[in-house]
Each structure stands twice: as C-alpha cells, then as structure tokens.
Amino acid sequence: MTDPLPTGATIGILGGGQLGRMLSVAAARLGLRTHIYEPGSNPPAADVAHAVTTAPYDDVAALTAFAHSVDLVTFEFENIPTEALDIIEAITPIHPNRRALGTSQDRLVEKEFLRSIGLTVAPFAEITDAASLDAAIATVGTPAILKTRRFGYDGKGQARLKSPDDATEALADMADAPAVLEGFVDFSIEISIIAARNPQGQIACYDPGQNVHREGILHTTTVPAKLPASLRTDAVLLAAKILNTLDYVGVMGVELFVTPQGLIVNEIAPRVHNSGHWTQNGCAVDQFEQHIRAIAGWPLGDGGRHSDVVMENLIGADVDKVPALAKEPNCAIHLYGKVETKPGRKMGHVNRIKN
Ligand code: AMP
Fold first, then answer.
1. Domain shared by 233 and 319, yes or no
2. Which atom of ligand 1 sits closest to the CA of residue 153?
3. For residue 175, pLDDT beyond 90
4. Do 61 and 152 fall into the same domain?
5. Sorting pLDDT into bands at 50, 70 and 90, what band is 107?
6. The domain spanning residue 174 has which CATH number?
C-alpha cells in the first residue's frame, strides 16, 4: 500500500473539460496540484490547473513527459486510446484502473461484466451485421435501442427501433460500427448512484439522485430521489459490488433504471459524473474532492448529505439565464468558462438548495 499523496504532489488529469476543471479545484483545496493533458486549446480546466500540456493522444514524447511530471494519473472521460494509457502506465499509476476503463469503454463488455456479477441489465445482443440484427430482434424483441459499442455519450451513437421494420435504417445509423441491441426498459424513473472506493477498500456512496434527460442529455438531478428505502439499499449494494469486483479506486457513476422488478443497470462511468454535481452544495465532501481523496489514498468523506438539492444543467443558450439565476436565493452557480456557446454544449449548472 502506497502512502497518501502529500501536499504539493501533482495529479495528472487526462482531459481538460469541466470535470477536469472541477477536479482541479478540489485538488487545490486539498493542497495538491493538477497537470492537465488535453489536445484542444483553451480547455475549461486550464484556468485552474498548475500545468497544461496541449498535445494529441498519439504524441509519445508529450505523454512520456506528462507522465514523468506527475505522481499519478486520472481521467475525466472514458474514450482514451489504449496506446496512450500504455505509455503512461509504464511510468506512473493510473486510477481508476485499466480494467474499469476497458469495461466501461465497450457496452458489450460492460453488460457481460455486470451480468457476470449477478446484476440485472436490459436484454442485449451483439450486432455485427444485418443478419445478427435480425436474429437479435427475434430474441430481444422491439421496441429496442441499437447502440454503438464504443464512443457513445449523451445519447449519441444510438438509434431506436419501434418495430422490426426500423432495422435497416437503425443499422445504417451505426455506420458499420460494432453495436449492441438493447431491449427497451419500461422504467418508472432513472436514478444514478455516485460511489467511491479508496486503495484501502473503504467505500462511500452518496444518496441516489433522480435524473431527467432532454434530447439524450441530462437536464436535472433531484436528491433525494423518489425511491423506496429497499431500492436505496439495493443501489448502494450493487455499486459496492461493482467497485469491489473491479478493485476500483476513485469515484464511479452508476446509472440505473427503476422498474417494478427492481433496479436495472444502464451503464457505469469510471469517473466523476454529471449526475453527481449536486454534491457540491449538498454534501460536506463533494464527488470531486471524494475522487481526489480516493486516488490520493486519503480517507473518504462519508457521503452524508446535509441538504436536498436540484441540479439543473445549463445547456447551450441556457447560459444566458445566468444574470437572472444570480438573483435567485439558494441557487449556487457553477460555470465552466467556455467561451463559445453551442447548442447541446454543457456550459455550466446550478444547484438549488431545497431545504
Ligand atoms: P445511454 O447513453 O445508454 O445512457 O442512454 C441515454 C438515455 O437513453 C438513458 O438515460 C435513457 O433515458 C435512454 N435509454 C438508454 N437505454 C435504454 C433502454 N434500454 N431502455 C429505455 N431507455 C433507454
């Protein structure tokens, strides 16, 4: 077991978006520094990090120098090329580990893993061509959703099939990418649980949040979720099972469908998660500090919640509402410093304290 990271140590973060930004702020509060690795210029995290490397993920020299300049590496998104991780891992540890990342990068691998540890997922089948899609429709049924195995986020890389007649069009939407057909889950609500585990095996979970999406993008998270106590316990137990099985270190978001038959796991995200932003104003130790504590080998915060919160994302032109939001009582504003507003772009969020 390695010692906890001391004051002044540097955490490397792959990705310089809003999650990297909020992780950097949390690290700074704990007396730690961050070094951002990001191919794009002027990333949101650059404003608040100690150092920034601007280079693509296939730049061996830049990755090598980055890895040598930090004490450990974490990431704010899943789709990091394997070769880049190989270069970094030969020099410095990566948390969460490669198994967790590899599992979450591929929807088929992820679903097989979740099912192998006894959790319930939507019925699914691997799709490689028109014949396998026809066969899958026969077993999984319709309505269903065809999803690319890799590189999907915020509802991208997905096509809905209301009936078998939609098969050809849905397959064309995948543009030959390997895919998974998922049976449509008739859920009452969507929730997520944000959980953390440190190298000592200590686990802490936040209260599940109730999520509402608009056009495939998270719109609000409300905490507490409208959920019976038994399902709250189930959510904690299943999250702990995932973390322990993966020997996970860091924060993970687990997205769940609530159905009359119980909880169905939609997907796991091996990182801090948009649906955990409410913790910034609902808990003494938020998900960003929790992630830094976990990967730095510190004791975890206990996940306790002091306030009810509704988190609302500011997407695209929503950011124009900031002057009005600034006049609202009990409304904490979190902006990501993105200069250009684009439709569908996450510009910030607000946390409204409800009690
Ligand atoms: P995902 O990118 O897999 O998280 O999907 C984005 C959103 O699409 C989810 O939050 C759900 O609202 C919806 N969705 C995804 N998969 C299913 C499913 N199998 N059944 C019903 N709704 C789904």
1. yes
2. 2
3. no
4. no
5. very high
6. 3.30.1490.20
Environment class of residue 150 by beta-carbon count within 10 Å: exposed (0-12), middle (13-18) or buried (19+)? middle
**Cβ-contact 8, 34 below 8 angstroms:** no
For the record, the structure tokens of 174 come out as 């995948």
User: Residue 173 in contact with residue 152, Cβ under 8 Å?
Assistant: no
Residues 340 and 214 in one domain: yes
Secondary structure of residue 262 in the 3-state scheme: strand
Q: Which residue has the tokens 């990333």?
A: 43
Whole-prediction pTM = 0.96
Tell whether ligand 1 has an atom less than 6 A from the beta carbon of residue 122: yes
Tokens of 133: 């899609």
Q: Is residue 99 part of a domain?
A: no
Spatial distance between the Cα atoms of 283 and 286, rounded to a whole number of angstroms: 6
User: What pLDDT does 154 receive?
Assistant: 64
Torsion of CA 30, 31, 37, 40, to 10 degrees: 80
Tell me if 266 CB under 6 Å of ligand 1.
Answer: yes
Which of 218, 266, 268 maximizes ligand 1 atoms within 8 Å of its Cβ, making it the mutation to test the pocket? 266
Find the mean pLDDT for residues 53-78.
97
Residues 174 and 196 in one domain: no
- Give Cβ neighbours of residue 43 (< 8 Å, ≥ 6 apart): 15, 16, 17, 20, 21, 36, 52
Q: Position of tokens 């032109």? A: 317
Please check whether residue 338 is in contact with residue 45, taking contact to mean a CB–CB distance below 8 angstroms.
no
Left (φ > 0), alpha (ψ -120 to 50) or beta: where does 31 sit?
left
| Nearest CA residue ID for atom 19, ligand 1 | 184
Which domain range does residue 74 map to? 10-94
Shared domain for 157 and 276, answered yes or no, is no
Q: Are 213 and 286 part of one and the same domain?
A: yes
Closest CA to 315 of 218, 221, 191: 218
The protein residue with its alpha carbon nearest to ligand 1, atom 6, reads 155
**Cα separation of 79 and 178, whole Å?**
15
Q: Are residues 145 and 283 located together in one domain of the fold?
A: no
